[in-house]
Write a structure and sequence with these properties.
Layout lengths: L5 H4 L5 H11 L3 E2 L11 H13 L11 H15 L5 H4 E4 L1 H13 L5 E6 L5 H7 L3 E6 L9 H7 L4 E7 L11 H13 L3 E5 L25 E6 H4 L8 E5 L1 H14 L5 H11 L3 H24 L3 E2 L7 E5 L9 H11 L2 E2 L1 E2 L12 E5 L4 H15 L3
Helix pairs in contact: 3-12, 4-12, 6-7, 6-11, 13-15
Bound molecules: 4'-deoxy-4'-aminopyridoxal-5'-phosphate and glutamine (GLN).
4'-deoxy-4'-aminopyridoxal-5'-phosphate (PMP) binds next to α6.
Length: 387
């Protein structure tokens, strides 16, 4: 019997699916996979429903509906002062996952080097490899997930085609500061490289921080491909509506990949996202403020039962060091034990590494109702404190 693609066959099922299945099996509270447990903004949902019933439900343009592309360009002008030409510089995709895949397949030639920061989202590396790219890693180390000039010197080379950066960073909940972004942009420019910027958590940043698109730094406007996700911005992760913004000469090859991947994205969802991107400032600040309060609630709870909680500057996530528990096993074993014994699911952070993985850090998702977070902490307390 002939077998499937060797590279893809070498990967197991993603950790998110694995932990969500285990969570269901054990009747656990799922603080593993990152998704909110509320219904999302009612007006955005209503716009999608109306568009489904009364709008056009045939193929929209492969680049996305003009309405959504215009809304996106206006949104990035409003929030970041970016001047984007919607006709030549925006494209709608079926989720950020597709946007990432289209960027990597559209830009990488076999043998090109790709700089990846670990921890990294699980879809990056398989796609870089499928495209024939050669990964070069920069490993960020907990607790502050920082990196140095020397780390970049070691990873970049004359063969570097692009760097893939995720800011805010899942699972580390790090938001890159301006100095770090400037350092990355210096290397990108010195090596005449590109940057694929996975900025899906752009609106989920806390404590008065503001997200800085790498594209907004001097010299980077025409080197960056900025990726966003309506799933995160509107707490509707199942919708899978993403977008890529980039200079025409970068967007064109990416559109070539997109046309053979999904070609287009449901028009009613595009209508609703176009509406949503135009919402008033208060919606976006309220989203971040609400999540910040949940971060604080879960972080305090985790600390009270003995976890060493790491700072979380953005995303849906907080990471925690488990060394203090003296658990006999790594983070993967700890998460499997936790879901079965405490009935709380988390994600082992080593799943986001391919080398030099820490084995003492786990990730919890806090984008859940307060009572769900409280019940999770009660369960952990019963296991760690009362036993
Ligand atoms: N990148 C990162 C860092 C993510 O956490 C996610 C969340 N799934 C994605 C990309 C994919 O987003 P989407 O659901 O829009 O495909
Ligand atoms: N981005 C989500 C997370 O990190 C999961 C998405 C997925 O399940 N593929 O939890």
């Amino acid at each position: 019997m002939k077998s499937g693609n060797a590279l893809l066959s070498s990967y197991g099922t993603t950790i998110f699916e694995v932990m969500s299945r285990l969570s269901e099996e054990h009747g656990a509270i799922n603080l593993g996979q990152g998704f909110p447990d509320d219904r999302g903004p009612a007006d955005v949902l209503q716009t999608a429903a109306d568009a489904l019933l009364t709008g056009w439900n045939q193929y929209p343009s492969m680049m996305g509906t003009p309405e959504l592309r215009q809304a996106l360009a206006a949104h990035y002008g409003r929030f970041y002062g970016l001047g984007i030409d919607w006709k030549t510089e925006t494209m709608v995709t079926s989720g950020a996952t597709e946007a990432l895949t289209a960027c990597l397949l559209g830009l990488i030639n076999p043998g090109d080097e790709v700089v990846l920061f670990q921890p990294m989202y699980d879809s990056y590396l398989p796609i870089v490899r499928l495209a024939g790219g050669v990964p070069r890693f920069v490993s960020l180390k907990s607790p502050d997930w920082s990196f140095s000039r020397a780390d970049l010197e070691a990873a970049f080379s004359p063969r570097t085609k692009l760097v893939l950066i995720n800011d805010p960073l899942n699972p580390a909940a790090k938001v890159f500061d301006r100095a770090e972004l400037e350092l990355i942009s210096e290397f990108v420019q010195r090596h005449d490289a590109l940057a694929v910027c996975d900025e899906v958590y752009e609106h989920l940043v806390f404590d008065g921080r503001r997200h800085i698109p790498l594209m907004s730094l001097p010299g980077m406007r025409d080197r960056c491909l900025k990726i966003g996700s309506a799933g995160k911005t509107f707490s509707l992760t199942g919708w899978k509506v993403g977008y890529v913004t980039a200079a025409p000469h970068l967007l064109q090859p990416v559109a070539k990949a997109h046309q053979f991947l999904t070609f287009t994205t449901p028009p009613n969802l595009q209508a609703a996202v176009a509406y949503g991107l135009g919402k008033e400032e208060g919606y976006f600040t309220g989203l971040a403020a609400g999540l910040q309060a949940k971060r604080d609630r879960l972080s305090a709870g985790l600390a009270s039962v003995g976890f060493d909680v790491l700072p979380s500057a953005g995303t849906y996530f907080v990471a925690a060091d488990i060394s203090r528990f003296g658990f006999d096993g790594d983070d993967q074993a700890f998460c499997r034990w936790l879901v079965a014994e405490a009935k709380v699911a988390a994600i082992p952070v080593s799943a986001f590494f391919v080398e030099n993985a820490p084995t003492n850090v786990v990730r919890f998702c806090f984008s859940k109702k307060d009572e769900v977070l409280d019940t999770a902490i009660d369960r952990l307390r019963n296991r760690f404190v009362s036993s």
